[in-house]
Design a protein that fits this description.
The complex is a heterodimer of chains A (408) and B (623).
Chain A: H1 11-14, H2 21-36, H3 51-76, H4 84-99, H5 112-136, H6 139-159, H7 161-164, E1 171-172, E2 177-178, E3 188-189, E4 194-196, E5 199-201, H8 203-225, H9 229-239, H10 241-246, H11 251-277, E6 279-280, H12 287-300, H13 305-334, H14 340-346, E7 347-348, E8 356-357, H15 367-385, H16 389-402
Parallel strand pairs in A: 7-8
Antiparallel strand pairs in A: 1-6, 2-3, 4-5
Helix pairs in contact in A: 3-8, 3-9, 3-11, 3-12, 3-13, 4-5, 4-6, 4-11, 5-11, 9-11, 12-13, 12-15, 12-16, 13-14, 13-15, 13-16
Chain B: H1 20-30, E1 35-41, E2 44-49, H2 50-67, E3 74-78, H3 83-94, E4 98-102, H4 108-118, E5 122-125, H5 128-135, E6 147-150, E7 164-166, H6 167-180, H7 184-190, E8 197-202, E9 212-216, H8 217-228, E10 245-248, H9 255-268, E11 271-274, H10 281-288, E12 292-295, H11 297-312, H12 316-337, H13 345-366, E13 373-376, H14 383-392, E14 396-400, E15 410-411, E16 424-425, E17 430-433, E18 439-443, E19 450-451, H15 455-461, E20 468-477, E21 481-487, E22 492-493, E23 499-500, H16 502-510, E24 515-521, E25 528-534, H17 536-545, H18 553-557, H19 560-576, E26 583-588, H20 608-614, H21 616-622
Helix pairs in contact in B: 1-2, 1-3, 1-9, 2-3, 2-6, 8-9, 12-13, 12-14
The chains are: A mainly alpha (408), B alpha/beta (623).
């Protein structure tokens, strides 16, 4: 019935991906806003059309795919994993072996429609091999086991030079193009500037569109997963695996599925990461990358797709924000502005005291280190005060207005 | 009032009198795919179309025939509101039988009385709880019951009694009979007559045992034309129709719920939504957002109290906005009250501010967002409460009627509302006040046929010239609107010889969210006293915020702070009345009143004589 948001006459209506009209409209608006960015249609949004911003958006979308994967494993099925970087690396090297074509290195030069799906399938298969350990060990121990994966992976990547290139040098990934087979000129080239339907677009913008479509597909799949039989099994395992098994949910089966699906997401993300960045060294797939995804899931809000979206954009954009703020402060520190006193304490200029220094060998933290510190702080703060993450903040705001004019 | 009093010419369709059953059949014929009712099962509102409903009714009717129910036999239904209630009700009417309903709260002794008094051959007892009231009675208590139907098998499956029959088996029996005797039910429907008794509605029995009021097909038809299809009932003037939603939650055996659920459904094609239970009414209201809603004052008072409590529990910003909105609502309410219920220019402006900010969200929360007509009846409501809802923009109209006249008496028509009155008589009905006693008397097509098997009692309720004595004393306000003073039996004559109507004083007390029950005593005494029962939720919440610790209802009632709170309410009430009508003393009722303990009737009305007996020590203490 119209205008009755709490009324459901069928389970289909109750379980709809976008159950209310408001949500449908909101989703369409967000999509229109995202598509409009490179075309510079709307004010404010057109500021983001410059390549520097689009690069960040592209990275956010790639991270989003991996974050969705970890969210399924950790948030939905409750299995802690620090091995996400390993699966991303596996995806990336599957892609480069199948799609790359550098001299002296392995590379078959196959088109995207082969290497992209395979970049998901290979990690998924490896994930299935790893899953049995998750049935044996839980919680902290599982974290340690998956941590081991990262180190094993890093060791292999560093030594398999014909796949990953030399340490500290790495290798180049194929460019983001679409070919039918190995023909010279690609059907669509997402990586070069050019015209689409009479509008000239930068390579970044084209990549952005490609990633937007891929990310959207994975978002819908992830959102849909939670309302399927498999998704409900995951949630049951998360809440109490023994109880779930008593109710007839196969623990082994569910955990294997969770690892496989999660690794598939990670692999796709890793492959796209390699392709979009262009050249990566074997050390990329290290513990720090894994921790970043844990941060995304926790800051965004474990167990929710919207949380993964917010978390990815937040974590990817944050360094840029921190950079902008420190640059602003450093300008203030030398001047006489109203915030110069604070800026002087925070920023080290010409070797005086300061928490952050912009010079290479300054006494304070570098911007990179500052970012690390902020990550750590944010994870701690969110775990303590807002376990549901950014999504929880949103829920809180929403509930405030939803319960209007009461409080409960 | 002028009295024109003819029964409506039988709206015959050439195939028997138009009964509620044949109305349902007509809906099924013209629009079989329209939704007729919904009930919530496993979290989902399951829909039943008219086609399916009528099919079930026919099958159930055949099953009744198979059991041997014949014309004029009684089928009793002892159940919470559920689709089967209405299926069985319509099926019984279809085969020219008589339905009678029992309140789910009726204790065993009353079940024995009601079933035997009505002489029911088939007794529908919903679940184990109701079945136990039959099976655990002394053997031979129910000599007339041939079949005992149940629909909730839990706990009943291993009972051993030949009379028991599960609903699905009953329907299976109906299907077999239907296949063998196609058209048997239709043939009986074609013989239906206006004067066929279609239901027995038992009076609540505040004094003496309940009496079964016989309502005929003509009575039902009259109520549908007069009340359900009353002109100027709604603000937009649109008659109730297939788009209207009704929440069914009051006991269907009561005449009010029967009219506003079953009879409205077959009369207008609106959708019935069954509330899961009385506890979930608030939640179900929010989900369904009914467009037509009838409630007893108790429910309106409860919603009113809930709003006030939740507002005072809100965070600071919401509290400030809420307080402002309440002031706005009071202003709008008062403006509208002084203008017959219509908006004035000023109130319209105030409403335009308050509605988007607070009222709309508030109405959504209490489930009244889509409500276009709401009624209050069956007891007197405090004017303050009505004014509050009017201020929020919820059109609540007070109405008056009783079982014996199929609830056809008066209604506050839209735009002609007078607060504190029960409105104007429906057009073209006979309604008069007795010149000596002021008793309201009616004479029209809705007046019942008499009490079941009680000719003397029937004779007593009619005047010599054939008018129905309602037993209520009323007076005219401005010559058009009727104001109810009280039941004749309740009027208190103090030892000083003053006539006092206790209801008005009691309602004024009950307008406070803290007071649930109030009973004024003083017949033959020097002054008035009152027994007061607190509303446990609200007073508990109030105590919590003042850090007053308590354990039980009784403990909380007797806290000195609570006594002080109630004294304040009593003082405020005393200011409104003359000195002789002032309450000198009061005592707290030490328990929550209950139907099963005999303090309340099934309709939650206080049994005065029982109360005086039960709490005689408290009463005597005050004099």
């Amino acid at each position: 019935m119209r205008g009755r948001p709490n009324f459901f006459a069928s389970y289909e209506a109750e379980q709809g991906l976008l159950p209310t009209t408001t949500k449908k409209i909101f989703a369409v608006l967000v999509l229109i806003a995202a598509i409009s960015i490179p075309f510079e249609v709307f004010p404010i949004l057109d500021k983001f059309a410059e390549p520097a911003w689009l690069v960040l958006f592209n990275r956010s979308l790639i991270f989003l795919i991996a974050a969705l994967g970890l969210n399924i494993l950790t948030g939905l099925a409750g299995q802690v994993s620090l091995g996400h970087a390993f699966f991303m690396g596996l995806g990336a090297y599957t892609a480069v072996v199948l799609g790359g074509s550098a001299e002296g290195l392995w590379g078959l030069g196959l088109p995207i429609w082969i290497w992209l799906p395979m970049a998901g399938v290979v990690p998924a298969l490896v994930g299935i091999l790893v899953a049995p350990t998750a049935v044996r060990v839980r919680g902290l121990y599982l974290a340690i086991v998956t941590l081991g994966l990262v180190f094993i992976g890093e060791h292999i990547f560093r030594n398999a030079n014909s796949i990953a290139g030399a340490p500290e040098v790495g290798r180049e990934w194929p460019r983001l193009t679409f070919r039918i087979w190995k023909e010279e000129n690609p059907l669509i080239d997402f990586s070069r500037d050019g015209q689409w339907f009479g509008v000239s677009l930068s390579g970044e913008a084209k990549t952005f569109f490609f990633l937007l479509v891929v990310a959207l597909v994975f978002v819908v799949l992830a959102k849909n997963l939670s309302r399927t039989r498999i998704g409900r099994a995951f949630a049951a395992i998360r809440d109490r695996d023994v109880a779930a098994e008593v109710m007839g949910v196969g623990e082994f089966r569910a955990k294997t599925q969770a690892f496989a699906i999660s690794s598939f997401y990670a692999g796709i993300s890793g492959a796209l990461f390699g392709v979009v960045v262009g050249r990566l060294i074997p050390e990329t797939w290290n513990l720090f990358l894994s921790v970043q995804f844990v941060a995304i899931v926790l800051i965004g809000g474990a167990g929710t797709v919207a949380g993964s979206v917010m978390g990815s954009f937040f974590v990817v954009m944050m360094p840029r924000m921190v950079e902008n703020v420190t640059r602003f402060l450093s300008e203030q520190a030398v001047g006489d502005g109203p915030v110069s006193a604070i800026a002087d304490v925070v920023i080290s200029v010409n070797g005086d005291f300061g928490i952050v220094s912009l010079e290479a060998q300054g006494p304070g933290l570098s911007i990179f280190q500052l970012n690390q510190v902020i990550y750590g702080l944010l994870i701690a703060v969110f775990l303590i005060s807002e376990p549901l993450g950014l999504f929880g903040v949103w829920i809180r705001i929403r509930n405030y207005w939803k319960s209007w004019p009461f409080t409960y | 009032m002028t009295a024109t009093m003819d029964r409506p010419s039988a709206p015959s369709t050439g195939s028997g009198y138009l009964t509620v059953a044949s109305r349902a059949r007509d809906w099924a014929a013209t629009s079989p795919d329209l939704v007729a009712m919904r009930d919530k099962d496993f979290g989902i509102w399951q829909e039943r179309t008219w086609g399916r409903l009528w099919d079930e009714v026919l099958t159930a009717a055949h099953a009744l025939l198979d059991i041997g129910v014949s014309v004029g036999d009684v089928v009793s239904i002892h159940s919470e509101d559920r689709p089967e209630w209405i299926v069985l009700d319509l099926a019984t009417v279809a085969i020219r039988g008589i339905t009678t309903g029992l309140y789910p709260t009726n204790p065993m002794a009353e079940v024995i009385y009601l079933v035997n008094d009505s002489g029911a051959a088939v007794h529908f007892a919903e679940d184990q709880e109701q079945i136990d009231k039959v099976l655990e009675a002394e053997p031979g208590s129910f000599p007339l019951i041939k079949k005992l139907l149940y629909v909730e098998p839990r706990g009943v499956r291993n009972y051993d009694d030949d009379r028991l029959e599960f609903w699905d088996d009953f329907m299976e029996r109906g299907r077999a009979h239907r296949a063998a005797n196609e058209g048997a039910v239709e043939a009986l429907m074609a013989q239906a007559e206006a004067e066929d008794v279609m239901t027995l509605v038992y009076t609540s029995g505040t004094t003496g045992p309940p009496k079964g009021a016989m309502l005929t097909n003509a009575n039902a038809e009259f109520a549908i034309t007069k009340i359900v299809r009353a002109p100027n009932r709604t603000a937009d003037g649109k008659a109730p129709g297939t788009h209207d939603q009704v929440l069914t939650y009051l006991p269907l055996c009561h005449v009010a719920e029967r009219i506003f659920s079953t009879w409205t459904m077959v009369g207008t094609g609106c959708v019935l939504n069954f509330a899961e239970s009385i506890e979930t009414v608030q939640v179900n209201l929010r989900e369904v957002q009914p467009t037509l809603f009838f409630a007893v004052p108790r429910i309106w008072e409860k919603i009113h109290a809930t709003v006030l409590i939740k507002m005072s529990d809100a965070t600071w910003f919401k509290k400030i906005i809420g307080a402002g909105a309440m002031r706005l609502a009071t202003f709008i309410g008062r403006e509208r009250v002084n203008n017959g219920g219509n908006h004035t220019f000023k109130s319209r402006i105030a409403y335009a501010i308050g509605d988007p900010l607070v009222f709309r969200a508030l109405k959504e929360r209490i489930g009244m967002r889509r409500c276009r007509w709401a009624g209050s009846g069956a007891a007197a409501i405090a004017p303050e409460v009505l004014e509050f809802f009017m201020g929020l923009g919820i059109p609540v109209y007070e109405l008056y009627g009783m079982t014996e006249n199929a609830a056809v008496a008066t209604l506050n028509f839209h735009g002609r509302v007078k607060l504190g009155t029960v409105g104007e008589p429906y057009p073209e009905i006979g309604l008069r006040l007795d010149e000596e006693t002021g008793e309201i008397q009616t004479k029209h097509g809705g007046v019942f046929k008499g009490y079941w098997k009680k000719p003397e009692a029937t004779a007593e309720t009619f005047t010599d010239d054939g008018w129905l004595k309602t037993g209520d004393v009323g007076e005219w306000v401005d010559g058009t609107h009727l104001k109810i003073i009280d039941r004749i039996k309740h009027i208190i004559i103090t030892s000083g010889g003053k006539n006092i109507s206790p209801s008005e004083i009691e309602n004024s007390l009950k307008a406070s969210p803290f007071v649930k029950e109030a009973m004024v005593i003083g017949d033959g005494r020097k002054y008035l006293c009152a027994l007061i029962g607190i509303e446990f939720d609200t007073v508990g919440n109030w105590a919590l915020r003042r850090e007053i610790t308590y354990t039980t209802y009784r403990d909380l009632s007797e806290k000195p702070e609570v006594l002080e709170l109630i004294q304040g309410i009593v003082n405020k009430t005393n200011e409104k009345f003359s000195r002789v009508e002032g309450i000198k003393k009061f005592r707290m009722i030490p328990k929550e009143l209950d139907h099963e303990d005999g303090e309340l009737t099934a309709t939650q009305k206080i049994k005065r004589s029982a109360m005086v007996d039960m709490f005689s020590d408290l009463v005597e203490e005050m004099y």
